[in-house]
Amino acid sequence: MDRTLVICKPDAVERGLVGEIVGRFERKGLKLVAAELRTLDSDVLARHYAEHVGKGFYDDLVAFMGRGPVLAAVVEGPPDTWSVVRQMMGATDPMKAAPGTIRGDLGTEVTENLVHGSDSAESAQREIAIFFPDLQ
Ligand code: DAT
Ligand code: MG
């Protein structure tokens, strides 16, 4: 089995869309193996978004991601589960995300795009270790 990190972002919690988002992954056949509501501080966000530190949108990204609780979760499924999750999320910009995807169906703003999913097997391993270091 293979695991990846999912974050239902503050906009998803605020809008009451956590059940909708997690439910999509569950209906697809992925299994929830860890989940916790928590508010992310700037240190965790700098580790998680290390590739984006210094970019023009970074300050807005961190302000948004830290403004309220997120649901951090690990889902498990077949090999390359990270890719299954990414396909179901849709493109980064919800205005360009295909209908049928989470971002395509539920959002319009690139910053407030509802959901995070690891973008490779290596990212999944790295990000799960940040959020759930005790997970077996
Ligand atoms: P993704 O979340 O699809 O993996 P990413 O890793 O490139 O996208 O960027 C992380 C987040 O940063 C993304 O979900 C929203 C924000 N972001 C990315 N590109 C942006 C941009 N050009 N303007 C504003 N926010 C952006
Ligand atoms: Mg990314």
Q: Explain this structure to me?
A:
The protein is an alpha+beta fold and 136 residues long. It has a single domain, classed as Alpha-Beta Plaits (2-Layer Sandwich). It has helices at residues 10-14, 18-28, 42-48, 58-65, 81-89, 102-106, 121-131; strands at 2-8, 31-38, 70-77, 115-117. It has a four-stranded antiparallel sheet with strand order 2-3-1-4. The radius of gyration is 14 Å and the shape is globular. 2'-deoxyadenosine-5'-diphosphate binds at residues 52, 57, 61, 92, 110-111, 113, 116, 119.
Topology:
Elements: E1 2-8, H1 10-14, H2 18-28, E2 31-38, H3 42-48, H4 58-65, E3 70-77, H5 81-89, H6 102-106, E4 115-117, H7 121-131
Antiparallel strand pairs: 1-3, 1-4, 2-3
Bound molecules: 2'-deoxyadenosine-5'-diphosphate (DAT) and magnesium ion.
